[in-house]
Design goal:
Layout (H helix, E strand, L loop, with lengths): L1 E6 L4 H5 L10 E2 L2 E2 H11 L4 E6 L4 H10 L5 E5 L5 H8 L8 E5 L2 E3 L1 H13 L4 E6 L9 E4 L5 E5 L8 E9 L1 H12 L5 H10 L4 E6 L2 E3 L3 H13 L1
Parallel strand pairs: 1-4, 1-6, 4-5, 8-12
Antiparallel strand pairs: 2-3, 6-11, 7-13, 8-11, 9-10, 9-11
Length: about 230
């Protein structure tokens, strides 16, 4: 399985709250977020791990150069306007089968993740998105599914009976990358618009529930995530 990590954001909200290190280098239980993610991927049979960071992260780049000696890491340094463009920057390394993409600040249960990877590898769908009923996000992306857990829509506003939101873990395939190329050519932006395009283009995208997924956007989220990881 190929893996990819989006770590090109500026982490402006954390910086405004006194966190001076770039988000990928923020320690979670003593380990930088980026290193923690790499080790989780390696434990789940990583063929390669592609990572995009921005040009203002020399500390992150230095760590990745060290980790590159032990893990099959592709490093892309590029300033991108959105997560969708970050994915596009890594796409040359992701062709030729299924891959799993996450953002660097996504914290999840490792057993949930291993189960998810196993299900995605066995699935015939074009993509599989991690979803959670745990909603603790300023602007969550709501996921609408049918009775068989196939995704029918991605919504900015909650439906009448909201159940799932996106967990920031994306299992995708070559066909999804074809749709990505179309989105880039059409000058679209934002990951959620790319996801809507997957459905609009008729791709079969399913949802895989996780118990809890935490995004580290604020300083208080670090404590929440550490407590979650410690308890698991």
């Amino acid at each position: 399985m190929k893996y990819a990590i989006i770590a090109a954001g500026e982490g402006s909200r954390l910086a405004s709250e006194g966190i001076t290190r770039p988000k990928p280098m923020v320690p979670l239980c003593g380990t930088p977020l980026i290193e923690r993610m790499i080790k989780i991927f390696a434990a789940n049979n990583a063929e390669s791990i592609s990572i995009v960071i921005n040009s203002k992260q020399p500390e992150t780049l230095a760590l990745l150069r060290i980790l590159q000696k032990e893990y099959p890491i592709n490093i892309i340094v590029k300033d991108t306007p959105s997560s969708m463009h970050s994915l596009h920057a890594m796409s040359q390394y992701l062709r030729g089968g299924k891959f799993c993409l996450t953002t660097v600040d996504t914290v999840f249960d490792e057993q949930d993740f291993a189960r998810y990877i196993e299900q995605f590898q066995a699935s015939r769908s074009h993509g599989m998105m991690a979803v959670t009923e745990y909603i603790d996000d300023e602007k969550p992306l709501y996921i609408q599914v049918d009775d068989t857990m196939h995704i029918t829509d991605f919504l900015d506003m909650p439906p009448k009976q909201p159940r799932y939101i996106s967990g920031g873990i994306y299992g995708l395939s070559d066909k999804a990358l074809d749709v990505l190329e179309e989105c880039i050519a059409a000058q679209q932006s934002r990951m959620r618009n790319f996801q809507r395009s997957l459905i609009a283009n008729g791709l079969d995208i399913t949802a895989c529930p996780f118990g809890k997924i935490i995004d580290i956007d604020h300083a208080e989220d670090i404590k929440k995530a550490e407590l979650f990881v410690t308890n698991r």
